[in-house]
Amino acid sequence: MNDIKNKKISLLGSTGSIGRQSLDVCRQYPELEIVALAAFDEVEEIAAQAHEFKPQLVALADESKYHELKAALADIDCRIVMGEEGVCEAASFAECDTVLGAISGIAGLKPVYNAIMAGKDIALANKEVLVGAGELIMREAEAQNISLLPVDSEHSAIFQCLQGRKEEISRLIITASGGAFFGYNKDALKNVTAADALRHPTWKMGPKITVDSATLMNKGLEIIEAHHLFNMPYEKILPIIHRESIVHSMVEYCDGAVIALLSEPDMCLPIQYALTYPQRFASPIKFMDFSQMQTLTFRPCMISDFPCLELALEAAKRGDGATVALNAANEVLVHEFLKGRIGFMDIPRNLEKILSSFDSIRVDSLSYILEADAEARSLTRSLLA
To answer: What is the C-alpha to C-alpha distance for residues 380 and 374, in angstroms, rounded to an integer?
Structure first.
């Protein structure tokens, strides 16, 4: 990775929750230069970001917003590109050396893949990239000899606890807050709403990931991501409930010693670490005050109590592209739940139907993975019609 003083960043997903927090980090350090921004359709917000950070390239996925964006950026010197190809151009922009992939969902896969093939280092905040194409992405990252650093708080914690000592690991322990509905029984879950699901007890995140946290699908996706990032068998990755969200993950070594990473729940910290690695910079986030900390609690994560987590682990162990179908169907179902068109428990119920009817696929190329993703989405929408 280049020296921090020369770090030039292309930020994909700049108007989302992680994107905004990434810009907060970059505001603190002039050494982190934003040279390209990409978002979906938020013209006003990305235009404001462009006026502040003066990138050389601005990409918007929604091509219908071209004239609006052009007018909003008329007074600054930057190139405007549109559509999926425009976002991929931002990902492989010649002037950047590091791409922060924060586009939500499978939409982030093709841009991250293009960035890797262009030889860019990756700070990855999008777990769906590895859920849908983990083997392909990790293989190409190794072939291109680029670094791929996790931004997810749990995976950043594991990465920091490992520090190159993978051969001595006994287990990876990934903590889960339990989301908004921890402790609810199945009868209580029948009537919960999207607004209820979005009241996360500790983290402020985007709506899709917050619902995934409530179903514990997010933890299933994180286990799949950890499997690929750290080349760890699934049976050696343990989820555990930790409501306080202070311990972000732990690594258990072969001698029984456990190393944990603790911090206040603030995504700016793992974002900053991924962008400044291998150095650590002073951070403006709130520091831990152990004198005020009463308890840290841990409870077993009974997988059978969380059907989405159980389905995610079944898909992971099945392989053959099942995680592509899992992720695609889940994105559609969460969207429908947020719109109020299906109930909370309809998410795992329909996921199980999709996985049971989805045929094995090849996952050795980007085109096959994207075709399977489209097929699973179509199948899910047909099921809901």
So the answer is: 10
